[in-house]
């Protein structure tokens, strides 16, 4: 489909007209000769409904995100050039509480406009593609959403069951380019889009029997020539897929490099993996040139996530007969913030007020949504004793992860393997101080409480590991404790150099920790005693865990990719890379369950040590929860240091 370009009032608002004529032109615009034209291709990607610079989970302003901030970069870049084009690379529809509010509360009836689409229209997006998260709420929701887009949405590798495309496979945007002599010339810009075929697994419930998803490169090899035959003089691939292996493999999720190698593709805009290109994220990656800003030899960019950057590919085009060729190019990911020497966030732009105001009503409705209950918890959620006993704040995370991953394994080669779940306490005192604990009372639970349960924006993963690796995983966690001598009183239990986020509890099995034994691993995960074994009575369904069998363990991307140096976790054992954050998984679990019962199931404990007592410190609020701790002989032992309370456990 061919679309003429018109500059709408909204696009004028998005350019920030006060800056027009005042900005310094880009060298390509300043130096272009007759028959040469400078075109700036701008990329938004992985917005995940972030319009306002607001962290809805923490319920506070955040300078690291928001299309309203990125819009200031758009205005800046438009003012620096004679010709520009703004495109969105997908994953705009889901990923923060505003998206869930629209999907679960307000709805997306035919004729309604989604706030992220309203905001993209305001900024002046001129074309876009689908990301994997566009399918999270079902096809009808998606179709009603993109109906309000003031720009074409394309995707070449998702078809309905009858073979017709779900959306347009590609489009041609007709533009007039102004060259260095001030003359205008027509150009026909082809835009084609792609999404990971893994959507058929990730959103099977919505998609199975309704659509099919093809391999990205195979679809490109069919449809890019058709786009060229239709008269496209420049082809931009909107690749909602990361920068992965250089060689093509059928069905690959991160196919940006082989896609760039398809004949007829001139520019590639990437995303999906929430990284930045050009930049250090891809230093040393085969098939890319960070200095040149090329992916598979073609100019490309990846613009972070949540509006953190605006991707930019500058092209110097030269007339070649009736067409154009790329004479030179430069790529950049322009950030909306930086960090100072102390790692503090420093905003580089202010929000564009018109973008914020375009969705101000939905923003306020989302605040009301995150502040009111979405479910109930039948037991309090607190982390005062998370390092010494099975804990409800960790239990809810483990339960949600196990629920999610068990569904994702259905219909795969891993179906039927036992699903376990690894989770660690994040707020457990330590350097965070005596108030740094989770404490959510029984009763109503709001979305913003989830940030208290899960501090980090990790994404869900599943690994396939052996029983021996499960045991070693737990041995690594058991390094959180000092070695305890039987018969001695009041020994300090916790190794204070060991971060609580590396104290993984694995649910689905039961086990005990023998503190009289030395630790096998040090705080950094290095083996210090190969023969040491603290984990005893490791059982699955009442029988000893088979160390030679294989198991699926739900975890997060940090752990699965090697964070913390845990056995069985180096990236090679990952069998599922979920598109959702662990926070989103917890929210979905709470919404679906209605009432959750996260009471700790006591699947782990310390092995008895005759005559030994140990001390550990917790927050003052622990005193009020002391009577709720089961399976542990524990009592107050006075004041700790720095405002902590001290407790004694009899082993």
TrEMBL record:
5'-Nucleotidase C-terminal domain: residues covered: 389-567
SUPFAM superfamilies named among the record's database cross-references: 5'-nucleotidase (syn. UDP-sugar hydrolase), C-terminal domain (SSF55816), Metallo-dependent phosphatases (SSF56300)
Any one of the GO CC terms: outer membrane-bounded periplasmic space
Family note: Belongs to the 5'-nucleotidase family.
Calcineurin-like phosphoesterase domain residues: 39-274
Metal-binding found in the keyword field: yes
NCBIfam families in UniProt: PRK09420.1
Superkingdom in the source lineage: Bacteria
InterPro entries per the UniProt record, alphabetical: 5'-Nucleotdase_C, 5'-Nucleotdase_C_sf, 5_nucleotidase/apyrase, Calcineurin-like_PHP, CpdB_N, Metallo-depent_PP-like, TAT_signal
Species the sequence originates in: Paracoccus tibetensis
GO-annotated biological processes: nucleotide catabolic process
Protein name per its UniProtKB record: 2',3'-cyclic-nucleotide 2'-phosphodiesterase / 3'-nucleotidase
Signal peptide: 1-32
Keywords recorded for this protein, A-Z: Hydrolase, Metal-binding, Nucleotide-binding, Signal
One example GO MF annotation: nucleotide binding
Cross-referenced PROSITE patterns: TAT
């Amino acid at each position: 489909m061919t679309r003429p370009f018109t500059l709408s009032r909204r696009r004028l608002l998005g350019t920030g007209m006060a800056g027009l004529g005042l900005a310094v032109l880009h060298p390509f615009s300043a130096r272009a000769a007759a028959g040469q034209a400078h075109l700036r291709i701008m990329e938004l990607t992985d917005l995940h409904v972030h319009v306002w610079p607001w962290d809805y989970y923490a319920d506070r302003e955040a300078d690291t995100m928001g299309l309203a901030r990125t819009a200031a970069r758009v205005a800046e870049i438009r003012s620096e050039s004679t010709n520009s084009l703004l495109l969105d690379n997908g994953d705009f529809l889901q990923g923060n509480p505003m998206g869930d509010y629209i999907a679960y509360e307000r709805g997306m009836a035919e004729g309604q406009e989604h706030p992220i689409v309203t905001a993209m229209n305001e900024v002046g997006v001129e074309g876009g593609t689908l990301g994997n998260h566009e399918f999270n709420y079902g096809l009808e929701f998606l179709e009603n959403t993109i109906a309000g887009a003031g720009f074409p949405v394309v995707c070449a590798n998702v078809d309905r069951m009858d073979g017709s495309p779900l959306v347009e496979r590609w489009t041609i945007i007709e533009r007039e380019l102004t060259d260095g002599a001030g003359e205008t010339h027509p150009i026909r810009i082809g835009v084609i889009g792609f999404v990971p075929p893994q959507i058929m697994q990730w959103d099977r419930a919505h998609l199975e029997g309704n659509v099919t998803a093809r391999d990205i490169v195979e679809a490109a090899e069919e449809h890019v020539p058709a786009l060229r035959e239709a008269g496209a003089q420049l082809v931009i691939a909107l690749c909602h897929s990361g920068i992965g292996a250089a060689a093509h493999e059928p069905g690959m999720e991160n196919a940006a490099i082989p896609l760039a190698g398809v004949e007829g593709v001139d520019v590639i805009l990437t995303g999906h993996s929430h990284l930045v290109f050009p930049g250090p994220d891809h230093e040393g990656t085969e098939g890319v040139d960070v200095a040149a800003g090329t992916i598979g030899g073609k100019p490309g960019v990846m613009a972070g996530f949540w509006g953190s950057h605006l991707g930019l590919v500058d092209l110097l085009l030269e007339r070649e007969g009736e067409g154009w060729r790329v004479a030179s190019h430069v790529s950049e990911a322009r950030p909306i913030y930086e960090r100072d020497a102390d790692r503090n966030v420093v905003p580089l732009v202010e929000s564009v007020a018109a973008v914020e105001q375009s969705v101000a009503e939905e923003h306020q409705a989302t605040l009301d949504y995150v502040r009111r209950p979405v479910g109930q918890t039948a037991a309090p959620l607190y982390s005062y004793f998370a390092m010494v006993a099975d804990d409800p704040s960790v239990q809810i995370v483990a339960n949600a992860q196990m629920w999610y991953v068990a569904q994702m394994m259905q219909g795969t080669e891993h179906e039927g393997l036992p699903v376990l779940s690894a989770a660690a306490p994040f707020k457990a005192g330590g350097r965070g101080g005596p108030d740094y604990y989770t404490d959510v009372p029984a009763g109503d639970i709001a979305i913003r409480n989830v940030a208290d349960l899960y501090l980090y924006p990790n994404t869900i993963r599943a690994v396939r590991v052996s029983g021996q690796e499960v045991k070693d995983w737990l041995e690594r966690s058991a390094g959180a404790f000092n070695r305890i001598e039987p018969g001695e009183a009041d020994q300090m239990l916790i190794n204070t150099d060991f971060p609580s986020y590396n104290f993984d509890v694995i649910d689905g099995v039961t086990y005990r920790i023998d503190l009289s034994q030395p630790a096998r691993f040090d705080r950094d995960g290095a083996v210090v005693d190969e023969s040491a074994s603290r984990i005893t009575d490791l059982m699955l369904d009442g029988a000893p865990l088979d160390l030679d069998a294989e198991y699926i363990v739900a975890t997060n991307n940090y752990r699965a990719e090697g964070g913390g140096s845990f056995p069985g976790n180096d990236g090679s054992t990952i069998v599922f890379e979920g598109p959702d954050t662990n926070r989103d998984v917890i929210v979905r679990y709470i919404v679906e369950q209605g009432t959750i019962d996260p009471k700790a199931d006591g699947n782990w404990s310390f092995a008895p040590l005759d005559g030994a007592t140990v001390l550990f410190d917790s927050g003052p609020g622990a005193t009020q929860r002391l009577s709720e701790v089961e399976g542990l002989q524990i009592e107050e032992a006075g004041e700790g240091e720095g405002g902590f309370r001290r407790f004694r456990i009899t082993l």
